[in-house]
From TrEMBL:
Residues 23-95 form the BTB domain. Coiled coil: none annotated. This is BTB-domain-containing protein. The lineage of its organism: Eukaryota, Fungi, Fungi incertae sedis, Mucoromycota, Glomeromycotina. It comes from the Eukaryota. Residues 297-474 form the TLDc domain. InterPro entries: BACK, BTB-POZ/Galectin-3-binding, BTB/POZ_dom, SKP1/BTB/POZ_sf, TLDc_dom. It comes from Rhizophagus irregularis. PANTHER family: BTB DOMAIN-CONTAINING PROTEIN-RELATED (PTHR24410:SF23), HL07962P-RELATED (PTHR24410). Pfam families: BACK (PF07707), BTB (PF00651), TLD (PF07534).
Length: 476
């Protein structure tokens, strides 16, 4: 039986990284003041990277048996990571800024370091969420032509669709490439009000149109040529606007002034729509609903998306969902009255359900997810590992949401079906027959429970709901 000493071999080879005697390659990276030379061994480079094995003479100069390679497009801080990986098989991106990691991604793609490329792309998506959100335009412009970066590009597009605000309000938005903007506007899951979409499309188009832009953005001073040029810029985007979703007052104030940039037949159809409620024939598109469809008085679509992420056990915001979700309203106390029997009649045997409740004393929204549904059982504990309770500070909050999942040690006590309750999540969060919602930390849900329930529960452990909703959850 052979004995393997891989660790010793790797350690010995890594010593060559700092060996200044036997190198035969000089690699010049960066430009100007931000440049640096690295010394390396051709045999190591060729073994580790197909790029160096088949290197074009365009970037190579032979001098006195020394190979000189120029890579001005790779920053020294990035190439240092690459060279260490080539010699040692090690890489540590923990404290690296997002800009270096993106540069590393592009460089590893060029140098055909496939394993490192995959690692860097996954790290960027998983660990640089905040930096990506702040640099959507730069990232998309950098990677849009690289098919190998499709995973990162899809991540950026889907994140933007979930929360477009950081992109459309950024200074860089007006310089966004038209093809990237087109990809965004044609999607049904771009979660933005259509009036807002129109506003920012106009700002972008004015900036992109020759003769207009920041120096000539007062439309009262435009001539026919200006409008003609703007119409050309907008031409491919007009069919993507869901005009039927723009309220009539917004159409009058925001769309009508730009009638000259709309095709005549489309504008006439819109006039008929707003005056006679006749749907446009040329550009009737479905509303932008995203992957979560909900009609609620208590939560908004972004909050519904967060709840769907929790259902999939994805605790990060703005991540892509694996399924599409539909929240069908089963019960609304303001319509049907606050009554546990009515709640049961409408919600029993409907499958997975979500309940929401707003307190009279605060703006806070409380809720619970029951993946196994409510039944007619009386006095029966029912088990699941997927139930949770949660709270939002108000109907717009997406920053301070809190979740408490069923404690794995007590998952057989997740749901309690009892005829004196409308709903009961382990006797922790329940609607009682006295029309009060009681909350207590009895240990069935996890340690974040107090953060979910407090501080708006009174000293008797209950609140009186101002409004309550229940939804059937369907995932496809």
């Amino acid at each position: 039986m052979s004995t393997k000493f891989h660790s010793e071999l790797s350690q010995d080879i890594s010593l060559l990284l700092n060996d200044t005697d036997d190198y035969n390659v000089i690699i010049q990276t960066g430009e100007g003041k931000n440049s640096r030379e690295f010394r390396a061994h051709s045999i190591i480079l060729k073994i580790r990277s197909p790029y160096f094995k088949n290197l074009s003479t365009k970037w190579v100069v032979q001098k006195n048996n020394m190979i000189e390679i120029k890579k001005p497009n790779i920053r020294p801080t990035v190439f240092e990571i690459i060279l260490k990986y080539i010699y040692t098989g090690e890489v540590n991106l923990t404290k690296r800024p997002g800009a270096d990691i993106l540069g590393l991604l592009i460089a590893t793609d060029e140098l055909l370091l496939e394993k490192l490329f995959r690692h860097v792309q996954n790290h960027l998506i998983k660990n640089q969420t905040a930096w990506i959100k702040q640099n959507y335009v730069h990232i998309l412009h950098t990677i849009s032509k690289l098919s190998s970066c499709k995973k990162l590009q899809d991540h950026c597009i889907e994140s933007i669709c979930l929360d477009p605000q950081p992109l459309i309000t950024s200074k860089e938005f007006l310089s966004l490439d038209k093809d990237i903007l087109y990809e965004l506007f044609k999607r049904d899951d771009l979660q933005v009000e259509e009036t807002v979409a129109w506003d920012y499309l106009m700002k972008w188009s004015i900036e992109q149109t020759p003769g207009l832009g920041s120096k000539n953005n007062d439309r009262t001073k435009w001539n026919d040529n200006n409008y003609k040029a703007l119409k050309e810029t907008l031409s491919k985007f007009i069919p993507l606007i869901r005009f039927a979703e723009i309220p009539s007052d917004d159409f009058f104030d925001k769309v009508r002034p730009y009638k000259a940039v709309l095709p005549h037949h489309i504008y006439e159809e819109l006039v008929l729509f707003y005056y006679k409620d006749t749907l446009p024939k040329s550009i009737t598109l479905p509303p932008r609903v995203g992957k979560v469809k909900v009609e609620s008085k208590l939560i908004n679509p972004k909050q519904a998306n967060i709840i769907a992420c929790w259902i999939e056990r994805k605790n990060e915001k703005n991540v892509s969902l694996d399924k599409k979700y539909k929240f069908d309203l089963l019960y609304h106390s303001k319509q049907s009255g606050l009554n546990i029997n009515t709640f049961r009649n409408k919600c029993n045997n409907q499958g997975a359900c979500l309940v929401l409740a707003k307190s009279q004393q605060s703006a806070k929204i409380y809720g619970g997810y029951n993946p196994i549904g409510f039944t007619n059982a009386n006095g029966q504990w029912r088990g699941t590992t997927e139930s949770f309770i949660f709270s939002f500070e108000n109907s717009e909050d997406i920053q301070n949401m809190k979740i408490s999942r069923i404690n794995n040690n007590y998952n057989t006590y997740a749901i309690y079906d009892y005829n004196s309750y409308g709903f009961s999540f382990g006797n922790t969060f329940n609607l009682n027959s006295d029309k009060r919602i009681y909350c207590s930390n009895n240990g069935y849900y996890d340690g974040n429970l107090n953060n979910v329930l407090n501080p708006h529960i009174n000293q008797n452990g209950y609140f009186i709901p101002e409004d309550t909703e229940a939804f059937k959850i369907t995932a496809t």
